[in-house]
Amino acid sequence: MATAKIEAGGHISINTTIRKLNYYIGERLIKVYPIAVGKPSTPTPAGSYKVKNKIVNPGGVLGTRWIGLTIPGGNYGIHGNNNPSSIGQAVSLGCIRMHNHHIEELFPCVYIGTPVHIYVRSEQVTTPAFKHVSGINLTGGSNRKTYTVRPGDTLWKIAKSFNVNLNQLILTNNITDPNTIAVGQTIFIP
Predict the structure, then answer these.
(1) Exposed e or buried b for every residue in 130-143, given b needs 16+ CB within 10 A?
(2) 140 alpha carbon, distance to own chain's centre
(3) Backbone angles phi, psi at 11, to 5 degrees
(4) What 3-state DSSP class applies to 187?
(5) Where do the L,D-TPase catalytic domain residues begin and end (predicted)?
(6) N or C: which end of the chain has fewer CB within 10 A?
(7) pTM for the complete prediction?
(8) In a domain, 131, yes or no
């Protein structure tokens, strides 16, 4: 099966609750993939990590590609699988499983050191959040304020608390749907 070419050099955000892997370039969502995650007794560890290694054709339950992560205390990664019906389920020992054709598409876009943020969120909020592990403010200037979204926040409440225009807040953060900000998401204050 031919794979579509996607842009390299981004970051990955994984929501273990809705079982989706999101690939970004900057703040722009490039692609969303369905995944399988750790079962309740061996959950996928939440946190901010990086890609530490990559293997082509690791075989067996790992499918056609392996992307190892810097998760302490185990050998965790994003990989293909030999059981496509497991995608969408919480069935692994903590790794993130993808369809082989999906990991083959993502694999060349991911480099050693690529940031990966894994989080747990209720299914009511489906927009991924990504907190930059590098700490780089992509909107310029080190004097720019940031705010991390908390439960119950809305863009309107954030705009009001910082005394800024709601539309300017939306434009500054390149937000396509102001009703779907996510807990843990970093908001840049204009």
Answers:
(1) bebbeeeeeeeeee
(2) 22
(3) -140, 165
(4) strand
(5) 10-119
(6) N
(7) 0.63
(8) no
pLDDT at 128 over 60: no
Query: 98-112: string of b/e by CB count within 10 Å (b at 16+)?
Result: bbbebbbbbbebbee
Per the annotation, the verdict on 132 as an active-site residue is no
- Whether the CB-CB separation of 21 and 33 falls below 8 Å is answered with yes
Residue span of the structural domain in which 181 resides? 145-189
Q: Is residue 136 part of a domain?
A: no
- Total domains in the chain come to 2
From the candidates 95, 99, 109, 117, give the one annotated as an active-site residue.
95
Asked whether 70 and 46 are in contact (CB, 8 A), the reply is no
Q: Which of 79, 99, 102, 117 is catalytic?
A: 79
* Per-residue pLDDT at 42: 95
Express each pLDDT in 163-184 by its tens digit. 888 877 777 766 766 677 777 7
